[in-house]
User: Fold these one by one.
Assistant:
Number 1:
Amino acid sequence: MGRTLANKQAIVAELKEHLSTSQMVAVIDYQGLTVAEITDLRRRLRPKGAICQVTKNTFMSKAIADDANWQPVSEFLSGASAFLIIQDDVGGAIKAYGEFQKSAKKTALRGGVMEGKVLSEADVKAIGDLPSKEQLMGQIAGSLNMVTAKIAIGVQEVTTSIARGIQANVDKG
């Protein structure tokens, strides 16, 4: 049973809408995944601000045709494609996919596109290895606290040294 033209146009429009608010698209070969496994992957991605869209390559091709930022995705359009469309936490979404891939062992990451640039499988995995925004904020806060503590200790040592110098002068006098 074929899809009507209106249905096809709606699918392409929905893809365009998702892409318009996304930072990155990763393309995976999902052949062999069950509906339950795809549902599991979607469940893992949702909290990271990402979706897994299983659609025909021709629909994605039409969705990216007029958008130079996403046209490089066409390099990955072959075979059974699923698209990880990532809007928020890019690193977190890639990590969530990596954890899913370890358990399912059925998917293959082909690559991705971010800011109009083609990313190899290794590039995408490297992004997944980066610390999250929360981890970076924690590291910065920790560093600032350490600097503040060192300044406080330094100021205290200066005042103590001045007090000792004054006391030594008083003792001599």
Number 2:
Amino acid sequence: MIKLIVLDVDGCLSDGKLIYSNDTIESKSFNVKDGLGITTWIKMGNEVAIITGRNSKIVEKRAKELGIKHIFQGIKDKDRVLNELVESLSLKFYEVGAIGDDLNDYNMLGKVGRSFTPNDGVLAIQKIVDTRLSTIGGSGAVREMIDILVVENDQTDEFLATWL
């Protein structure tokens, strides 16, 4: 049973595009279906973490909105942070699911119990994950992953009951 999901941001939780205004203000877009899936996952007593290679106040704000307690930004070695997180939560790697789309996610994805990539994840990642999703990053890929895990965890009734 998966108890923790680990999310990459750019290319998974967002579409991976970096948009800057003339005054160098960064913007990102996030899918509301991903957000509802994440908040429901947390309401069911599961954990969510963000491990991302970039630093962004936007990501910090979105994580806070969704109730994500574990957020790690500016991470060059995602595998090391994952190891520390799993140990701190007293979990086993087979209880962890993760989504990533590029080479900096490679080691992390190879270690977890269930690994996913958006449909537009790079080829090297597509080859090592358990599931290549039908949706692309930023367009509901995280929600698709959560929906799959809810079924595999036999938590469908609990997931639906949160909102019905």
